[in-house]
Amino acid sequence: MYFKEEHHLFRQSLRAFLDKEVMPHIDQWEKQGYVDRSIWKKLGDMGFLGIDYAEEYGGSASDFMYTAILFEEVSRCNSGGFAGVVVSDVGLSMPYIRNFGNDELKKEYLTKSVAGDIYGCLAITEPNAGSNVAGIRTKAVRDGDHYIVNGSKTYITGGVHSDYIVAAVRTGDEGSSGISLLVIDRELEGVSAKTLDKMGFHASDTAEIFFDNVKVPASKLIGDENMGFYYIMQNFALERLAMALCWQASCEDAIAYTLQFMNDREAFGRPINKFQVLRHRIAQLASEVERIKIFNYNVARAYGDGEMVTKECAMAKLMATELGDRVMTECLQCFGGAGYMEEYKIARMFRDSRVGRIAGGSSEIMCELIAKMTVDAVGY
Ligand SMILES: Cc1cc2nc3c(=O)[nH]c(=O)nc-3n(C[C@H](O)[C@H](O)[C@H](O)COP(=O)(O)OP(=O)(O)OC[C@H]3O[C@@H](n4cnc5c(N)ncnc54)[C@H](O)[C@@H]3O)c2cc1C
Q1: Contact 180/171 with Cβ under 8 angstroms?
Q2: Span from the CA of 131 to the centroid of ligand 1 (angstroms)
Q3: Which atom of ligand 1 is found nearest the CA of 368?
Q4: CATH top class, domain 122-226
Q5: Residue 135, Cβ neighbours under 10 Å: how many?
Q6: Shortest CA distance to 110 belongs to which of 121, 101, 1?
């Protein structure tokens, strides 16, 4: 219903690539706290970073369902951190340049990003402004042909090793009407970053980023000055849809992995998959994952068709990440003590899933947004 033969073939080749080029390195990347730079070039060479980007930037201008497959498949590599940095590049940073940037910015950043020569991160959150995006304080003051940027960002996925930062900065008054987006090159003087120690997503270099009198050329402004909040709200739909697709795939992966374990593990003289209480638990979860998957695919298709699906993307993210938490908790329970051991990948899945209800807009913020568009019947 959602995928043609070509989509299936694409999924197969992507999965084979990930099996060969990513899976053997995942444990090392989790240990070192970042993914090796070499993977970007390999992803780029295979065309996986430019799926729905225009051919003039090296992309293949394919429909959005291919990108949906990318988000699903990178989430099956048992590393939320790896999936996180890929989504942060393809789904969070590059789209701002594509959708709102001028030709010069597109040529410079998209061409290299699609090729895997560089990759980006998105920096909105600040120590004092997370859910409340309109409250950001990082200041960009115009000085001739440049902006002088001062401030800091936090919890930024890919915040240490990415080559450029799509940063939300304050160029105008307080509130949502004074925010702009700048592309800030990592190499500029005054940019520094500190890796944050965190509970999961270990293969992602989540970081605090500092801007100390950074001189950013005015040509790096994305779109128009003081329109940043509007751009961010538009792109949040894609970020949330991407997360919904990632979590749905992780849920499927966790259930498949758990079923294998339940088949092999015996207790009281029989495989534990014969215990009705566990069978019913899995049956319930599998049904819920299936329902959310169909919803997500519907939203993905509508998004690809250019429909306004802000509310549906928030719903998809809310439901998939909340379900992710329950799936990981219940699957881990089926492993008994083994589930608590790092030897079994369910432990990492459990840890990585938890951030879904927080990052990209928390569950509470998703509910607020959905309530505005349903309870208040305010269209966005
Ligand atoms: C691993 C990880 C990766 C991340 N990656 C990025 C990234 O790449 N780029 C980026 O910009 N940010 C990133 N974030 C930041 C993330 O988007 C924020 O953490 C999130 O938006 C919540 O903001 P906060 O942490 O400041 O929490 P707060 O806004 O302080 O919220 C604290 C609690 O209060 C609740 N709350 C707040 N406001 C309301 C309200 N109006 N109604 C009801 N409840 C409310 C929240 O839901 C939450 O439970 C990442 C975070 C994590 C943990």
Answers
A1: yes
A2: 5
A3: 42
A4: mainly beta
A5: 15
A6: 101
Encoded tokens for 34 = 């970042």
For residue 259, name the pLDDT band (cuts at 50, 70, 90).
Answer: very high
Cβ neighbours of 55 (radius 10 Å): 10
Fold of 5-119: Butyryl-Coa Dehydrogenase, subunit A; domain 1 (1.10.540)
CB of 167 within 8 A of CB of 181?
A: yes
- The residue nearest atom 19 of ligand 1, judged by CA position, is 359
pLDDT digits over 98-154, tens only? Answer: 999 999 999 999 999 999 999 999 999 999 999 999 999 999 999 999 999 999 999
| Catalytic hit among 239, 252, 288, 290 | 239
What's the fold here for domain 229-374?
A: Butyryl-CoA Dehydrogenase, subunit A; domain 3 (1.20.140)
What is the number of alpha carbons within 13 Å of residue 276 lying toward its C-beta? 0
Kindly provide the residue ranges of all beta strands, DSSP E only, lying in the chain, ordered along the sequence: 120-123, 139-143, 146-156, 164-170, 179-185, 191-195, 207-217, 221-222, 266-267, 270-271
CA of 366 to the centre of ligand 1 (A): 11
Q: Which residues on neighbouring strands pair with residue 267, listed in sequence order?
A: 270
Q: What's the whole-model pTM score?
A: 0.97
| 104 among known catalytic residues | no
Q: What does the domain layout of the chain look like in residue ranges? A: 5-119, 122-226, 229-374
